[in-house]
Design a protein that fits this description.
The chain is α+β, with helices and mostly antiparallel strands. The chain contains five helices and six strands, in the order αααββαββββα. The chain starts with 16 loop residues before the first helix and ends in a 7-residue tail after the last helix.
Amino acid sequence: MSEAAPGLPDSPAFATPERAELAAALRGLIDAAMAVQDLDAEMLRTAATAIEAITGRFGGGRTGAGYRPRSHGDYLPRSPIVGEASPLSPRLDWEIAEIDGRPGIEARGSFGAAYEGPPTYVHGGWLACAFDEVLGIANIVAGHPGMTGRLTIHYRRPTPLFTDLRFRAWLERTEGRRIISRAECHHGEVLTCEAEGVFVQPDPERAKEYFGDAPGPA
């Protein structure tokens, strides 16, 4: 399905199949660079030179050339967690789901070598990032978008790399402008970690301060 939440269409100029193909190839390169050990110095130098040449052709580099402000609708394809156009993303594929009678989402995917913390397990910081993302999407799906105010993670067991994981996220309740939602990560039938997020819908004045006239988290 589209990575955009309802009402937030992907940018057709950016989230193209070709861009997704490029991102997938870069993810493979990142994973190989992090995991493959028996590479000689000459091979590494040749690869680095080729990659620098391609980066130059794109007009990019350390200066962030080509970056420009954009609407929130362009964000999810670039997301570091679910973005099909982001080489940083482990590519969690998500879909709208009802979780115990509540509106929410389910997301599946795996984390490769670039996301390692303890040997063979996912770094807890990446799991926190994943929870922040799936909770935010679940809030949008439920019609209550907001900005993260507090994120509490409970790590129950180590979460393995290179293994299919299932995230469940749902809106628990709202209290005025406060949005409380919860999420879980499962490896098979094992709950490896869970999260509670408190999100805040900014008032119009604060939203304009943060985002100007561009669409904010809604």
